[in-house]
Amino acid sequence: MTAAFHDRREAGQRLADALASQNLTHVVVLALPRGGVPVAAPVARALGAPLDLLLVRKIGAPGQPELAVAAVAEGTDPALVYDDETMALTGASLQYVKRELPAHLQEIERRRTLYLKGRPPIPLAGKTAVLVDDGIATGTTVRAALMALRLRGPARVILAVPVASQEALRALRPEVDAVVCLETPSWFGAVGAHYRHFPSVSDDEVVALMEEQPWAH
C-alpha cells in the first residue's frame, strides 16, 4: 500500500484546498491535539479562520494504552463516550474507566494551560465549527469531541480529516452537518500507515503552532 500523504502538513494543505472550495463563513477551526494541530494550522490559515483546540483523551484498554475503550473531551461537564465492543473484547469495565478518568482530566487541564497559556476557548455560538484531526481509525475520540462541540452551540459542525476508516466515517456522519475526508481506503489499519512521515507530535510543536496564530499575540 502506498501512503496517501507525505506528512501532516501536506495533508493539511490538501484538506485546506478541499475546504476552501466550499465558501464557508464565520469559521472557527478546532484541532484535536496533538496530531491534529499540524493538519489544522494550514486549514485555519487558508480559511482565514482562528484556530482553537479541543482537548480529548482516549482511555486505553488494560495493558493496551493505544487501544481506546473510551474517550473524554474537555468541558464544564466533560463528554465521556464508551466503545462497547472494545470494552467487551478487552474485559474493561465501567469501574475501570471511571478509575482511569481523573488522570486523563488532569492531563487535559495540563495541556490546555501549556498550549493556550490561559486563553479562553473561542466562542462557537452561531459559527461554523470545523473539527480537524490527522485521521480516524475507530472514531471513539472524535465522537467525544463532537459531543463536547455540540454543547458549545455552533450553527454547523464540519468534520475534516485527511483519512478515515470507512466504518468510522459511516458511524460519525449522522453526528455532523458535513464531512470532508480525502481518503477512505478499504483497508485501514492505523492512521500512521497512510503517511510516509508520521512522527509523534511534541508539546513544544503544538505550542509553537498555536503561537503562530494571529490572535496569540
Looking at this protein, list some descriptive labels.
single chain, alpha/beta, Rossmann fold, 8 strands, 38% helix, globular
CATH top-level class: Alpha Beta
Q: Please tally the β strands and state the result.
A: 8
Indicate the percent of residues in helices: 25-40%
**Average pLDDT level:** 94
Oligomer: single chain
CATH topology: Rossmann fold
Largest sheet: 5 strands, parallel
The spatial strand order of the largest sheet comes to: 2-1-6-7-8
| Tally of helical runs | 7
Number of domains: 1
Percent strand equals: 15-25%
Structural class based on helices, strands and sheet pairing: alpha/beta
End-to-end CA span = 43 Å
Please give the CATH architecture.
Answer: 3-Layer(aba) Sandwich
**Low-pLDDT ranges:** none
Radius of gyration from the CA trace?
16 Å
Secondary-structure element string: HEHEEEEHHEHEHEH
The geometry reads as: globular
Domain Phosphoribosyltransferase: 14-190
Pfam family, one: Pribosyltran
Organism: Ideonella dechloratans
Protein name: Phosphoribosyltransferase
